[in-house]
Amino acid sequence: MEKAVWRFIDSGDNSPSFNMALDEALLEWHGAGKIPPVVRFYGWNPATLSIGYFQRIEREIDMDAVQQLGLGFVRRPTGGRGVLHEHELTYSVIVTEDYPDMPKTVTEAYRVISEGILQGFQNLGLEAYFAGPKTSAEKEALKNPRSAVCFDAPSWYELVVEGRKVAGSAQTRQKGVILQHGSILLDLDEDKLFSLFKYPNDKVKERMQRAFKSKAVAINQISSRKIELEEAKKAFKEGFEAGLRIKLDPYTLSEEELDYVNALAKNKYESEDWNFKR
After folding, report:
1. Residue 150 bears catalytic tag
2. Where is this site: Lowers pKa of active site Cys (predicted)?
């Protein structure tokens, strides 16, 4: 059987507003039938804190710390918790809900899309697997996560290596199109990450950071050798092709497409109305 051909975009390092605008534009273009499904890889310049669509900045985020560290900041169109995008490979997948064999439920579609990420980890020699919440307490924590930190919050079909979370993803659906994007950590500065959030007191912060170490891990903390970004890109590109049974065809945005994305970035994702008013 001939494999479906999806578009593959490696857009490199870009501003936080551009990154979110391009994901939204791809969702819009695919929904309008202008482009096939897409897998995109990208990075961040500067390193950025992104927060979930529903997060409250004044309650959860230390914006003074974000500014002092020279980090970018953006609110995602997807849910989930705060993510420090620094030493990582970020991916997005855009595909219609009625794509062949795509489950209708969010959790099952997440598992199918994340099969490509699972294959990518295995291509790097890591024994990754899916682990979901087992107890009623773990399931309840999905509805009301206590932590503002993405990799500290539980999720369905979590990707884990050696019992610890290795990828954090979020999903939204608009007009029949799925956008799933997420972070694949190569390295992680835990002190920097935990300095970006608000806590009732220092003891709570220390306890949460200790617990975090047992829940999340970056690739280069567990790999027997140093994994560089280009090797990770190759492994996960091939992982998506194998996991989704597709062929990825590289694509470069046209000038017209870039103009559209830049305008959306400026007008929406750089605006205070979008980033701060929730």
Report:
1. yes
2. 165
Quote the pLDDT of residue 13.
98
Per-residue burial over 182-220, b if 16 or more Cβ lie within 10 Å, else e, is: bbbbbebeeeebbbbbebeeeeeeeebbeebeebbbbbb
Q: Calculate the alpha carbon distances from 42 to 20, 78, 157, 181 in Å.
A: 11, 17, 23, 10
Residue 246 three-state SS: strand
160-182 residue pLDDT tens: 998 899 998 999 999 999 999 99
Please give the pLDDT value at position 269: 98
How far does the chain reach from its first CA to its final CA, in angstroms? 48
pLDDT, residue 226, reads: 97
Q: Name the stretches of the chain with pLDDT < 70.
A: 132-156, 278
Q: Which of 150, 177, 193, 244 is catalytic?
A: 150
The CATH code of the domain at 4-276 is 3.30.930.10
Tokens of 47: 């390193």
> Which amino acid, one-letter code, is at 26?
L
Sequence ranges of the domains in the chain: 4-276
Contact (Cβ atoms closer than 8 angstroms) between residue 158 and residue 165: yes
Instruction: Specify the pLDDT at position 81.
Output: 86
The structure tokens listed for 278 are 């929730």
Order of all β-strands in the sheet with 83-85? 72-75, 48-51, 83-85
Q: Is the dihedral of CA 90, 92, 39, 30 positive or negative?
A: negative
